Amino acid sequence: MPHYIPKCSPILFECVLGEELVKEIELINPTNKEINYWVSYDGSVDFSIKNAGNIDYDCVKIEPKSKIVYKVKFTSRLS
User: Fold this and answer.
1) Which has fewest Cβ within 10 Å: 33, 49, 53, 71?
2) H/E/C letters for each residue in 32-76?
3) How far apart are CA 40 and CA 23, in angstroms?
4) Is the model's pLDDT at 48 over the cut of 50?
């Protein structure tokens, strides 16, 4: 499924020790049908899903021909 391949290089989280950094991932639905994602997070405790307002971070719904911004927070524990 070529639509689900990231359009850019990997997202780098570069910061000083102990700093928190939030990056935004833009999810776009170019189709004429609604897309639903079920989100689960597995990995380092340095990363977390940032809650922002009306977005439910367990289930992401993207309306046809629209986009949403998904936020990921990184807290640096190692230099």
Assistant:
1) 53
2) CCCEEEECCCCCCCCEEEECCCCCCCCEEEECCCEEEEEEEEEEC
3) 18
4) yes
d(CA 53, CA 2) in angstroms, rounded, equals: 30
Q: The tokens 């833009």 sit on which residue?
A: 26
Q: Please, which residues have CB within 8 angstroms of residue 56's CB and are 6 or more apart in sequence?
A: none
- Asked if the model's pLDDT at residue 34 lies above 90, the reply is yes
Enter the tokens of residue 48: 């977390």
Nearest-angstrom CA–CA distance, 71 and 64: 21
**CA pair distance 25, 66, nearest whole angstrom:** 14
Q: Residue 52's CB: how many other CB atoms inside 10 A?
A: 13
Mean pLDDT computed over every residue of the chain: 78
